[in-house]
Amino acid sequence: MISSEDLRFFNVLAKSASLAEAARKLDVTPPAVTQRLRALEARLGIQLIDRSSRKMTLTDEGALVASHGTIVAEAMEALSEALADRKNAVGGHLRVAAPHGFGRLHVAPVVDAFAKAHPSVTVTLDLSDHPGARLVESSDVVIHIGPPGPLNQIVTTLAPNRRILCASPDYLANAAAIQSPSDLTRHRCLVVRENDEDVTLWRFLRPSREPDTVRIHPTMCSNDGAVVREWALAGHGVAIRSEWNVAADLAAGRLKRVLPSWEVPAADVVAMLGTRFGRSARTTAFLAMLRQSLAPPPWRQKTVR
User: Fold this and answer.
1) What is the tens place of the pLDDT at every residue in 234-245?
2) Are strands 218-222 and 212-215 parallel, antiparallel or unpaired?
3) Considering the domain 88-161+268-296, what is its CATH architecture?
């Protein structure tokens, strides 16, 4: 017979790239994982892991066990959550995904407070450069900055967030004047490359005017927004950054708004909710705490120049 503990163990193996990675997740030694796997295979009389290649690969029988293990694990979790909700208890495991910078500054402190308020909850906070819709199915809450995912995705807005065209005073003092969006084609532009978006097409809005788009030529680019902010502070060029990221720099005069009469399309802070939403008291409680921490938005308490 195969037990629920066997299924939990094998699920960890199936989602790991190696036995060493599985051992880290299980907080045991690699030999202990190997020994337990061999004992499980001997008891079942089948091979679950193909050891003929350097990469850990499931056999057909191993894939079958893993798929059934996922079904059983989800059913057990759903039952635990349903029973907890019956008594209005906040428990279980909360999975949160968020962007690196915003997650460290605004989400991690809420996770800390949430864990202290609900000791029976365990939490995983996954900080990623691209935590968008692809993580929704494996997370309870995905914090996203910018346009939400597919139309069928459950999304709730947490806080407003403008995007701001800015540069350092030193750069602006030594560069040609920027009086219209088209002038940007002659300037050093700093960009963040995310997903497959066209980051070289900058869009601008202005009341009572047609929107304007400019094809810029990036001088420096990175997949890390914090790096691009540092480049802007160092005077390397003009960048579009989120209000939450540069509000303090603008208030202190380390950066200045460029083309202040024009607006860049906003990128609100939203929460994309996984399929567990609606039956999980912990998700509802966490969202309430996170929304409260962002009201009013901390970055709006600073004066933007």
Assistant:
1) 999 999 999 999
2) unpaired
3) 3-Layer(aba) Sandwich (3.40)
